[in-house]
Amino acid sequence: MAEGDAFSILLLTRYSQNGASSRLRCYNYLSILERTGFQVTNAAFFGGDYVDKLYRGKFYGVGHLLRDYAKRVQRLLFAQSYDLIWIEKEVLPYLPACFERVFFGDKPYVVDYDDLWHLRYTEQRNPLVRGILSHKLETIARRAAAVVVGNPVLADWAHRAGAQRVIEIPTVVDLKRYQSKPLPDGRFTIGWIGTPITEKYLEVAAEPLRYMQERFGAKVRLIGVSENFSIPGVEIERVPWHEDTEADELSRCHVGIMPLTDGPWERGKCGYKLVQYMASARATVASPVGFKLGGPAAGRGKLFAQRHGAEAGRGSLRCRVDDFEAGRSPAHGRQNKTLQWPNRRVRGQTGAGCAKPRAGTWRKRLTAT
To answer: What is the pTM of this model?
Structure first.
């Protein structure tokens, strides 16, 4: 790099702006980097229509996928002209790491993970894919100049993979968009925010939500679920997700929930929903899974249900109703109370292939006393 030239970065994201992980882990930092003198060239792998089709359950198409690979390879031909390569997860999905490295030469690269992405290969049902790619992500991490991760669980994985340098940067929100607003008037409102991909976890909370509506007349507000999503026996309000309105929509709730199953993939979650709820000055009730137990969300305003059984989930939400009726903000009324949502352990389920929680199993656990 000649003196006076801007430091150039080739950013290889997985998704365009509408993909949550790419937006939160990469795009949100671009304006800051550019203001401080870095020149960032972004090249997303998937086209902008990929996420929309994924959320709608529509087939992406082999032609579209081949187009995406061709565009990525075309960009990689010029990768060595940049000072640094910034990778989100991987460069060429379902191809060995050697195919990626050949384009980099000796250029340094940084790779970012906000999920246990290696499970997509190690837990593959296809034995050929599993045999060839089960150590791909470890190879990428080991050769990287730095591995950036969203939580300590991911950091442990990176260290075990042999990464030279591991940097923890939690997935966070822009506080300029999350202004603290007073609690809304009207019915006690339980909120959730997510995508059609993660809405399956709401089944974990189905019975406590039914109880809260029957006992307290609570309102259930779900932001980002699919148009046809429903919870048997629960009246829900479906709210479309938009980046510029998500903070306002969350402020219309009294408490935010984050139910999860206890599977390998879920244990690597960064707890971003909890960050969103508390940035909105709203309390949380969450499953005792993954990073959130010790992350920035720990402590103030955070409530968990400690034991399995119906009273665990119900009791945690009842505490929030008590705060509300007493005129206390649920986010501040029980600063040091740490309980955990009842949780179902799931073995061998990962990522996009994770099965929906079994309702029968959950009903047994939720009704056990």
So the answer is: 0.81
